[in-house]
Amino acid sequence: MAEPYLVVEHLTKVYERGHVVALKDVSFEVQKGEFLVIIGLSGSGKSTLLRCINRLIEPTKGRIFIDGVEITKLSPRQMRKFRRKIGMIFQHFNLIKRATVMTNVLTGRLGYNPTWRTLLGLFPRSDRELALKNLERVGLLEKAYVRADELSGGQQQRVGIARALMQQPELLLADEPVSALDPATSHSVMQYIEQMNREDGVTVLASLHFLSLARRYGTRIIALRDGELVFDGLPEEIDDRKFKEIYGEEAEEVEVR
Amino acid sequence: MPPGYPKVYPKGKPRRMSLDAVADFFYFGFRNLRKQLSIAVLDMGAVAVLWLLMNYVIIRFSTGQIGYTLVPWWIFGVGVVEAAALWESFGRSFGHRVERLELRRTDGREPTLKQRVLYWLLWHVSVLPLFPLLLVPSPHERGSGLELRPFTMEGRVPRPWWRTSTGIYVAWLMGAALTAAISVTISWEDLVRLFTRAGTTAKFWRSFFSPDTSIILKTIRELVVTVFMAMTATSFAVLVAVPLSFLAARNLMRGVVGRFIYTVIRVTMSIIRSIEPVVWAIFFLVWVGAKLAPFAGVLALFVHSVSDLTKLYAERLESIDPGLIEAIAATGANRLQILRYAVIPQIVNPYISFTLYRWDINIRMATVVGMVGGGGIGQALFFYLTGNLWKQAGTVMLFIIALVWGIDYLSAKLRAKLA
After folding, report:
1. Beta carbons of A99 and B345 less than 8 Å apart
2. What is the pLDDT of residues B223-281, one digit of tens each?
3. By the CB < 8 Å criterion, does B256 face chain A?
4. Residue of chain A whose alpha carbon sits nearest to that of B20
5. B333 vs A12: CB contact, 8 Å cut-off?
6. Which of A84, A195, B181, B293 could be disulfide-bonded to B332 (CB atoms 3.0-4.6 Å)?
7. What is the ipTM of this complex?
8. So what's the pLDDT on residue B369?
9. Contact assessment for residue B132 and residue B138, using Cβ atoms and an 8 Å cutoff
10. Mind listing the pLDDT tens digit for each residue in B183-226?
């Protein structure tokens, strides 16, 4: 087997002096090109796990390797540079609402350009062309100069994807990318993420609420419960018993079509 | 430990007498101290205020004199402490309500009378010397087998507000406060005068509607000075308040040094703000001399605007969406880039809106500041009023009304555009 792309070793995150343990000794590996789905209830530590991987949240204990680099050892400066290769999309899209779609997409290039240029909003021609190309890819070319808050939820998330694409990432972290969207839009957004995974070979880590979505798009699934890793395997391995173990005895599976 | 606060150790419980255990003792101890003390202080405060208020009203009505307590002060002190102790032990006190807690047995059931009596007795040795509160659970809780738990509505029948104890407390309190307020501020003679002496204002109203046209040009000149005073003060205030607001935003000032700077700025600003611009104007008149009247007024408005704008700006900064900061940081952006693309887009319109609002306030304030000699139209108005020149005073007031109305309208229009 090839060298894994992402290695998480004994990752622990404790908030506020032992009061809230978000992650308890989580370890797993991800191969290059995998579409790994993280499932679990709200508050099970999915978001914390994703944010530890690009160190938006500092882990309390444990090590993380990406492509052989121990990112938990990098200085803040080195980490900023490293983040350029890690795209991220969010549940609530997190776009600059008052700015145009174009500006939002261009922020994906902030890490690649000198600070003074970006402060003045001067992005190179090549970046602008790339932005239009990526907008075309997510089907929003004609919306390039529309304000971001005028778009629908699904369109805003596609802008988020285009912004992540601008980073030309090797790894994409998706924090509940479709939780704020209706089922039909969810599939359209998930398909763009799948396309990134298949065509550009981007390794994807996505947290999802619905098991049906996880089964449909994931090549592998891990499950968290109260910050602990309770499942690591293929989508078809999750049977009724496993499901109850992850979501609790009273849970019923809901389908999203 | 009360439920809802699980004490979890990822590395296992620290050994006794280890540095971790000591740090833990103080951490949880001070949490408990803060909670218990806040309840006690709130209850004693509530009892004391109520007591003083009632006594004041009784004394005022029965003797017509001003007095605050019917008993010696030391009895008042002991009484307040004892009332708080009884209230906390035998009922759900004001402090419990504020902290959303209730007294329960450790198994979650209703306390027995014996336990409540024990709790009340031990309360004195636990709360009054303070340091036993560092122990978790504190002596009075341990001794009585009771604890403060988060309050839940589970298993309770909801009642209309006038049948809940909170509703009854609040209604009584409001009634008592209003009675006291009326009795302090209004006397019967005042009311009589209000109706019998209405005719004395006729001179004022008559002159108000027969303006003196000869001073129009002079008044307009003063009006322009007033607007300029407000503009100068607001502009310079913005220059100072924008950088200060970043240092006064809680979410941006993390760490010990950050919190220190935050506290110093916030406290200074609220002190400055609590002193009225009129007082600042007098202060600066003494400082820079009466000859430079508009300048003193500008300084007064400037100082007050800085503190007001810093607060408004900082509160806006505190409510920005942290999600966007995360998103921009995730692209590999540095601090300056995060500021430019995640923070500024969220604050620029509210900042402009606050600035316009403050300019609007400053124009109104400038007339008041002028009354004490701060220059502009206020000074003119004051001059005419003190000289019994009613006609001229009426003219000036007409202009002030027009100006304030105009600026109010303009700034509201502009702010609506920004929203």
Report:
1. yes
2. 998 899 999 999 999 999 999 999 999 888 877 888 899 999 999 999 999 998 989 98
3. no
4. A17
5. no
6. A84
7. 0.92
8. 86
9. yes
10. 778 878 888 888 888 888 887 788 778 878 888 898 999 899 88
- Provide CB contacts within 8 A for A33, sequence distance 6+: A5, A197, A201, A203
Q: Report the alpha-carbon distance of residue B195 to residue B188 in Å, rounded.
A: 11
Measured CA to CA, the distance from residue B243 to residue B241 in angstroms comes to 6
H-run or E-run covering A143: none
State the nearest Cα–Cα gap between B131 and chain A, in angstroms. 22
Sign of the C-alpha dihedral, residues A178, A179, A180, A183? positive
Cβ–Cβ below 8 Å for A115 and B337: yes
Nearest CA in chain B to A80: B332
CA separation for the pair B122, B133 (Å, rounded): 12
- For every residue of A65-109, which 3-state class applies, written as one string? EECCEEHHHCCHHHHHHHHCCEEEECCCCCCCCCCEHHHHHHHHH
pLDDT, chain A, mean: 90
In chain A, what residues touch B18 (CB-CB under 8 Å)? Answer: none
Q: What is the distance between the alpha carbons of residues A16 and B175, in angstroms, rounded to a whole number? A: 44
| Optimal mutation site among A118, A179, A226, interface B, most CBs of chain B within 10 A | A118
Sequence ranges of the domains in chain B:
15-166, 203-418
Answer yes or no: do B341 and A96 touch at CB < 8 A: yes
- Shortest Cα distance, chain A CAs vs residue B180, angstroms: 46
In the CATH hierarchy, which fold is given to the domain comprising B203-418? MetI-like fold (1.10.3720)
